[in-house]
Design brief:
The complex is a heterodimer of chains A (133) and B (480).
Chain A: E1 5-9, H1 13-24, E2 29-33, H2 36-46, E3 50-53, H3 62-69, E4 82-86, H4 90-101, E5 109-112, H5 117-132
Chain B: H1 2-6, H2 11-14, H3 19-52, H4 60-86, H5 92-116, H6 128-136, H7 141-164, H8 184-277, H9 286-316, E1 325-327, H10 329-347, E2 350-354, E3 362-364, H11 366-382, E4 388-395, E5 399-406, H12 437-447, E6 452-455, E7 466-472
Parallel strand pairs in B: 2-4
Antiparallel strand pairs in B: 1-3, 4-5, 5-7, 6-7
Classes of the chains: A alpha/beta (133), B alpha+beta (480).
Chain lengths: 133, 480
């Protein structure tokens, strides 16, 4: 089986490391980015199988990145699943995104920090399986 | 008061119909009506004089003059209606202008009429006084004095010209001696009486009119000032409200950032702890594992405390009630229990759910109510060593009632009143919680317009406790 590539976007280097270690323990290839802009650049260059996205970040935050992805110019990447990994409560994030954009935050999954490694791996596996199918 | 100085009272421009303007309109109407009454009076007086008292004088000119009065009165009437139709805008000047036309026309006509009805012989000569009183209603004192002088001058001129023979004199035959108009003492007496009558009535009438106008102006000013003050207060209040709202938003923004920055390091630590505990970084000794588990628990405590502390201002500023919508309480309970079922199972506690079919939906914040149910049920599980926790919903006339009943240790009676206070922890338990759970639940329920209370021991069981909260069926969400 070919190695799956996951892009993790988070401004906290410790979280990046923690998530990377969890994912690498299951043989995933991990690419990281420290903010939304870097995230978009890596998305283009790496074409990952899954994006794990933090919401509150400097420069371009997760909301802005996700909104940008809805733009037709990113249509090539739109079938890449997005998992939000944030310390913001899910319903609060959804409300904020709706207020700001008028659209539903149509992400594939949402995990609140702190993340249980087992739960995170389980969700990641599910999303990757769905994408491959 | 300073507001009065920088905005002089401009009643004419500000009001559709100022009291002053209204008075002037009435004045025009009074003049016109008086004229309509004067015409028959003149005709009847002439008829009575000639027919009843056999006073002889040519009546034809009198009738011509009456026709003339009728014609110009009609013209003035139409004109007054046209002014009336104009409606908005200041008409004060216009009406005063046309009013003076009325006055001048009357003055001239009255003099001419006097000439044809005996001049100095006619007692109606004193009717000029009425003319002056009519003018006092609306004109200024100076204007009325001027008018009185003009009237006196015209009468004197008429009498003088008749005396000098420049104008022919009409004798009221049978009423006055034919040469009365040549009798200087009579002429002077009549003129003096007329003059004094004119000036005294001018003085009296304008005094009254001025006083009335002054009071009218005072009323207007008072009204203006009150209006001004009220507008000022309203403006001030709305600025205050905007400022408060802005402060609230700033505060909430601050809280958002504070929450994130406080949680971020803890989240990272927790992440690493869980990686180690999950065995992702190699085997751990039992002691290491034990210490890491404890650390993780303390971190969880701290994270919960931060969440709870930040929840309170969010609920109190009404922020959580923004996502209020129609929700199913059954669904809320189901989600809460999904998270708690494992905990209950581990402790061997039975969870009993009693929710009637076709429970009506209510207006509420689903995540917040879930927080309440989760809090009540998890407390019940924690403080029940063995037995059952019952979650029961019943429909009342105006509200839904949620009861969480346990068979646990209960709450000491003297502590019951403080259960919903911030940082309260019962003395009969080894507290691990933040002491904020119930106080937050109370805030959430109250924000929904409901009530929450506790009974312990629960009378039916004679042990444990029963928490009850009500949620109104019709609720628009109380925004604080």
């Amino acid at each position: 089986m070919e190695q799956k590539k996951i892009l993790v976007v988070d401004d906290d280097p410790d979280i990046l490391d923690a998530v990377t270690w969890i994912l690498e323990s299951r043989g995933y290839q991990v690419v990281t980015a420290r903010d939304g802009l870097e995230g978009l650049a890596n998305l283009k260059s790496e074409n990952p199988d899954l994006v794990i996205l933090d919401l509150l970040m400097p420069k371009m935050d997760g909301f802005a990145l996700f909104k940008e992805l809805q733009n037709p110019s990113w249509s090539k990447y739109q079938d890449i699943p997005v998992l939000i990994l944030s310390s913001v409560r899910e319903e609060a994030s959804r409300r904020r995104y709706e207020l700001e954009t008028g659209h539903e935050l149509a992400v594939d999954d949402y995990v609140e920090k702190p993340m249980d490694p087992n739960v995170l791996l389980e969700r990641v596996e599910k999303l990757i399986a769905k994408k491959t199918r | 008061m300073e507001t009065l100085n920088d905005s002089p009272i401009t009643t004419e421009a500000e009001h559709e119909r100022s009291p002053q303007e209204a008075a002037l309109r009435i004045w025009l109407k009074v003049l016109i009506t008086t004229r309509w009454t004067a015409i028959p009076v003149v005709i009847i007086a002439s008829l009575v004089a000639t027919r009843v008292f056999n006073i002889a004088f040519p009546t034809a000119p009198v009738y011509y003059i009456c026709v003339f009065i009728a014609l110009y009165n009609l013209a003035l009437l139409l004109q007054a209606r046209r002014i009336e139709a104009r409606g908005a805008g200041s008409l004060v000047r216009t009406i005063r202008f046309y009013g003076s036309i009325h006055i001048v026309l009357d003055l001239v006509t009255l003099t001419v009429l006097l000439h044809f009805t005996g001049g100095i012989e006619n007692p109606f000569i004193f009717y000029f006084v009425l003319h002056i009183i009519g003018a006092s209603i609306a004109l200024s004192r100076k204007e009325v004095y001027l008018l009185a002088s003009t009237a006196l001058f015209m009468v004197s001129l008429l009498v003088g010209l008749e005396y000098a023979g420049v104008l022919p004199h009409v004798n009221l035959v049978g009423f006055a001696p034919p040469l009365l108009y040549q009798q200087v003492s009579h002429i002077l007496a009549v003129l003096v009486v007329l003059a004094t009558a004119l000036y005294i009535s001018t003085y009296m009438a304008t005094s009254v009119a001025m006083e009335l106008r002054r009071r009218q102006q005072e009323v207007i000013e008072l009204r203006e000032r009150l209006l001004h003050e009220r507008t000022g207060q309203l403006e001030k209040a709305s600025i205050e409200i905007a400022k408060l709202e802005e402060e609230k938003q700033r505060f909430l923004h601050f809280l958002g950032i504070a929450a994130h920055d406080l949680k971020a390091p803890l989240t990272a630590i927790q992440g690493f702890l869980w990686i180690m505990l999950g065995g992702y970084s190699g085997e751990l000794s039992d002691k290491q594992k034990n210490m890491l588990e404890r650390s993780s628990r303390r971190i969880t405590e701290l994270l919960n405390l931060i969440s709870d502390l930040l929840d309170i201002p969010r609920i109190e500023t009404g922020q959580t009630m923004q996502d209020i919508k129609e929700i199913s309480l059954r669904e809320v309970v189901r989600r809460s229990l999904d998270d708690l079922r494992n905990t209950a199972k581990e402790k061997g506690i039975k969870l009993k759910v009693e929710i009637p079919q076709n429970l009506p939906r209510i207006q509420g914040s689903s995540p917040r109510l879930q927080q309440v149910i989760t809090n009540l049920v998890s407390n019940a599980i924690s403080y029940t060593p063995e037995g059952t926790v019952t979650i029961r919903i019943t429909e009342k006339a105006k509200e839904l009632q949620v009861e969480v009943i346990d068979t646990g240790i209960g709450i000491p009676p003297d502590e019951l009143p403080q259960v919903f206070d911030d940082f309260f922890r019962a003395s009969n338990v080894e507290a691990r919680g933040t002491g904020l759970g119930l106080s937050i639940s109370r805030r959430i329920v109250e924000a929904h317009g409901g009530r929450i209370w506790v009974e312990s021991p629960y009378p039916e069981n004679n042990r444990g406790s029963k928490f009850t909260c009500t949620l109104p069926k019709k609720n628009k969400g109380k925004k604080k």
